[in-house]
């Protein structure tokens, strides 16, 4: 009887931990999207190129852009269970924010076994998000 009560007592704690994990993943992806938009905006408004680099080894993304005439560098650290799957780098051209090449930023959510791709379109620098369960 005590075992059953203990199990039912732990279930809410496990669910809360899973919920916190999913919120952390969602917030990291939202932050990636916002910093990408900030870099894109900077390239158009400031007429200075912006650079984005995803480093698989350090699990961080580096955003270099200009804001009100000052060079900025922001780091987004990716925490488990979300992972950067491969190194990616991109330069958004000054004035147009057109990407220097077709690039994909790939993440993997270990908790749900989900691959998340952000594909940057040539010409418009629009980003398409693809989610694929493994």
User: End-to-end distance, in Å?
Assistant: 39 Å
Order of helices and strands: HEEEEEEEE
Strand order of the largest sheet: 3-2-1-5
Average pLDDT level: 89
Q: Which outline best applies?
A: elongated
Give the radius of gyration: 19 Å
Q: Which percent range fits the helix content?
A: 25-40%
Low-confidence stretches: none
Percent of residues in beta strands: 35-45%
Largest sheet: 4 strands, antiparallel
Number of discrete helical segments: 1
- Compute the number of strand runs: 8
Secondary-structure content class: alpha+beta
Task: Please summarize what this structure is.
The protein has one helix at 2-45, and strands spanning 50-55, 60-67, 70-77, 82-84, 88-92, 103-109, 114-120, 127-133. Strands 3-2-1-5 form a 4-stranded antiparallel β-sheet, with helices on one face. It has a 4-stranded antiparallel β-sheet with strand order 4-6-7-8, with no helix packed on it. The protein is of the alpha+beta class.
């Amino acid at each position: 009887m005590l075992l059953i009560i203990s199990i039912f007592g732990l279930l809410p704690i496990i669910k809360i931990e899973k919920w916190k994990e999913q919120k952390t993943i969602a917030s990291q992806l939202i932050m990636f999207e916002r910093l990408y938009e900030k870099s894109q905006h900077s390239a158009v408004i400031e007429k200075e190129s912006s650079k984005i680099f995803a480093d698989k080894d350090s699990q961080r993304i580096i955003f270099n852009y200009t804001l009100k005439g000052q060079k900025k560098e922001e780091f987004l650290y990716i925490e488990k269970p979300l992972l950067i799957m491969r190194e990616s780098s991109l330069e958004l051209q000054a004035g147009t924010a057109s990407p220097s090449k077709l690039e994909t930023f790939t993440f993997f959510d270990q908790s749900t076994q989900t691959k998340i791709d952000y594909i940057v379109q040539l010409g418009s620098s629009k980003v398409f998000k693809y989610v694929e369960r493994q």
